[in-house]
Input
Amino acid sequence: MREVIVLGGSQGEHLAIKVGSLLEAEIGSLEVEKFPDGELYIRVDSEVEGKTVVYINSLQRRPNESIVETLYTLDLIRDLGAREVHAVIPYMAYARQDSRFKPGEAISIYSLGKLFNSVRVDYLYTVDMHLHRVKDPSKLFGSNFENLTGVRELARHVREHFRLENLVVVGPDEESEQWAKIMAEELGGVEYSVLEKKRVGPEDVEIRVRGVDVRGKNVVVVDDIISTGGTIVECVKSLRKLGAKEVIVTCIHPILVGRAYNKLLRLRLLDLIGTDTVLSPISKVSVAPPIVSAIRGRLK
Ligand code: R5P
Output
């Protein structure tokens, strides 16, 4: 059995501890400090030479700083003689900047892909990356890239905590249909759909759930990211106008910038659930199990 050590960066230590425990692996330690001028100081405080190293760090809140920390640490781990490097980036920043929407704009996710390729990791994993326009992510991150999902873990939480009849799953927009589909399957094959806006006159827009009547139904909303909360607030208000009964909101990456959490609390939801790809007051579900099974699959 090869020796595995799990390390967590400053936005990933909580997951490194959970993943290390599930893998029954050593949980190492990393020192990440800042010099007075803002430069980072990074030190691996555990022996990694000859070992399989799993490094976990998310790229949220201070994405630019987290990217530098992550890339420097991965380069360092290789430099210290790790045998194999598994990089886990539970929240991949810049994924929404995947196209040149206006002339001259940076397609930042491609630049980030090039940076990750330069640090020679053996395997790169992320969770529910916002992949809408990038059809083949291996073009960005190489063939050993894996996009895992935490939606099944969210669904398990809903199943274990609520006994709801008359259930329907709704995504707040077209792009969220992929997550709504998985959630609906995991909740026993219930109906699912997405919210859509339809122009019904020069000044009027009708909001409806495509093909589904939510009147009197309990709704589980699922999205990948909650950032400002604006999308979810609009979605829940629309569902209530359409006559929905109880509403549970779930998301993978609860980034919750500014007043987002309070805005969501005001919605008086039956529950508000996020995962721990990003630590937040709603991170009730862990993505450690899918990360562990993906790593185990590669260790065989
Ligand atoms: C958009 O396509 C994403 O899936 C999320 O719906 C969006 O990022 C949420 O952002 P906010 O919470 O700021 O509305």
Notes: The chain has a mean pLDDT of 95.
